[in-house]
Design goal:
By secondary structure, this protein is mainly beta. The chain has three helices and 17 strands. 9% of the residues lie in helices and 35% in strands.
Length: 241
């Protein structure tokens, strides 16, 4: 069943649109680094590499510069053979296959044909027939404002994440090494942005984590990428509408 989304924050919808802003903050001992943006003025695009990891772009910095993006982050999980571990849609083109069982496909980021961005729990793939951008990933970290139960409390790793207030306000970035359970509790208690989080989605972290922020966001430019980083299959990039 799909997640029941909280209604958009009406005050946020009527508030002035703010330019993307850099965030660097500690919450419960976890360091968050990324950028907030408003979906009324900016959007996230999926950049996929049909020929596999590093076949076109080896790093987030490369993909951001090629596509004139403000920010780039590694996105979905992939198999040892370099195939998407779930459905991916980029500019309306579908690749991969619906991941119906794994927790690594239990959450969906999508942009509809009308330009609406959302994070939802995995339901039926027919709910996304009109999507023009989509990454199937997971697990969800928070849902409807609360931490998701049953998250792994053992494995510690750097995380790539995507957050929303359920309306037009979004945050994209990375964390320091932590468990999924600690991350979910941290996000349920406090936001790295200036608004409360409704839904948070875990992306492919660990050695795949790669964040690039351009100089067009005050506080950039920089790239956060370990020297042990492994090339990835796809990316999310931030661009003006």
């Amino acid at each position: 069943m799909s997640a029941v989304l909280a209604p958009p924050n009406r005050q946020a919808l009527s508030s002035p649109v703010k330019a993307p802003a850099l965030t660097q903050v500690f919450i419960r001992g976890i360091h968050f680094e990324g950028a907030s943006f408003d979906a009324r003025s900016h959007r996230l695009l999926v950049i996929d590499q049909p020929n596999g990891p590093a076949s076109t772009f080896a790093t987030c910095q490369e993909v951001a510069r090629q596509h004139d993006a403000l920010l780039a982050l590694n996105a979905g999980f992939f198999t040892p053979d370099g195939n998407p571990l779930g459905l991916v849609i980029s500019k309306g083109k579908r690749t991969g296959a619906w991941n119906s069982a794994s927790s690594l496909g239990s959450g969906i980021f999508s942009e509809s044909a009308t330009g609406h961005l959302s994070i939802t729990r995995r339901g039926s793939p027919t709910a996304f027939l009109d999507a023009r951008e989509l990454i199937q990933s997971g697990p969800l970290l928070t849902e409807n404002g609360g931490a998701v139960g049953g998250l792994d409390a053992g494995k510690i790793a750097v995380r790539s994440i995507l957050l929303t207030d359920g309306g037009t306000r979004w945050w994209i970035g990375k964390t320091s090494a932590c468990t999924l359970a600690a991350l979910g509790e941290s996000l349920a208690s406090q936001s790295p942005a200036a608004w409360p989080i409704q839904h948070a989605l875990n992306l492919d972290g660990g050695r795949s984590t790669d964040l690039y922020v351009s100089a067009r966001i005050p506080g950039g430019s920089f790239e956060r990428r370990s020297f042990l980083n492994r090339p990835v299959r796809n990316f999310l990039i931030l661009k003006p509408k």
